[in-house]
Amino acid sequence: MGIDFKRLAKEFGTPLYVYDLDYMKKQYRELKSAFEGAKSLVCYAVKANSNLSVINTFANEGSGADCVSIGEVKRALLAGIKPYKIIFSGVGKSDSEIKEALELKILMINVESEEELKRVEAVAKELGIEARISIRVNPNVDPKTHPYISTGLHENKFGVDINMAKRMYIYAKNSQNLDPVGIHFHIGSQLTQLEPIAEAAEIIADLVRSLHAINVDIKFFDVGGGLGVVYDDEVLINTQEYANAIKRAIKGLDLTIVCEPGRFLVANGGYLVTKVLYEKRNGNKRFTIVDAAMNDLLRPSLYKAYHKIELLDKKEGEESKTDIVGPICESGDFLAKDINMPPLSSGDLLLVHSAGAYGFTMASNYNTRPRACEVGCEEGECRVIRKRESFEDLIANERLYLKA
Ligand SMILES: Cc1ncc(COP(=O)(O)O)c(C=O)c1O
User: Fold this and answer.
1) Which one of 58, 281, 316, 365 is least enclosed by Cβ atoms within 10 Å?
2) Is 382 annotated as catalytic?
3) What SS3 state is found at 348?
4) Per residue in 179-217, pLDDT tens?
5) 109, 114, 120, 124 alpha-carbon torsion, rounded to 10°
6) Residue of 27, 50, 58, 66 with the most ligand 1 atoms within 8 Å of its CB, for mutation
């Protein structure tokens, strides 16, 4: 890695997101090569980190993109992803988003309900075209992950059940304006066990066999994203075993495997550098107040997610437990709880690890806090890839109607 975080903090200020783009490329290549021997398309899940330079890093590797809004589709295109490698997913696409996606000639729209299928058909009819679609099937498999990032059970809002999917495929096959080319499932995120994905892949591959038997010509087998990463001491799914399980599931079928990794590609290539502002005690409880907050990195507050935090300077003194908290007026505003740190003082720098996925993309302006600067490092050079927001940026769209 060899990134000089202290120098970057000095030059660009804190809080600061730093991305190791070389690491991200390495992750892409590892996954892509695991699928060797099969037709495959890796579509980076833009929601994980949608900075244009990050997307462009994957575009240069030949990646496609998995997008969940027309904004993400436009980002992907702007960053150099080819339209025929873009998938548009999500449970709530508006008519105008569907229209724009069809006009942009993306690979396929991933449909998540019967009503949506009819909407896509109607919009395609208006445009006088055939819309390439896939259907997100909910295989009702427990992914054994955090409930907030579990998506493949019937109790989750995503996709349709198998019987409904079959009806929708038959409807689409008979429609003049729909071309059902793909099938999709995504059972959850931060998956660390192979069995649930392998089981879901088998279930969906069987469905493809029955669809092929009735001449529904599915070509793309989209297994979603979800590969887990190490935040703490997780034991991960081996990428080759993951790819092999999918190849096994579709044995004998002429399909292109599509996968949509987000976290796997970017999480451990990202860091959040933050500066200590104060230390305080409330009774026996120690708090370290830093300049990054839940508006910069929401995952600890939202999911009680663990992020390793490293002190960038060696400090003398006995370690004791402290909560690393931000300046936001919420008790839920913390980056870590009860971690060991030596006594810290104003100006000390902390490095929050594994912050490349669902970090900046979930950032907000809560408490009128400008979003952090983002820096991308590649082959020994670090550049600003998104400048720090200013107060003026924050209020640019507001209008003040002063009463006399
Ligand atoms: C449909 C779909 N594909 C891909 C992803 C990316 O997931 P991950 O970052 O866990 O790989 C998500 C995440 O929510 C998703 O919903």
Assistant:
1) 316
2) no
3) coil
4) 999 999 999 999 999 999 999 999 999 999 999 999 999
5) 120
6) 66
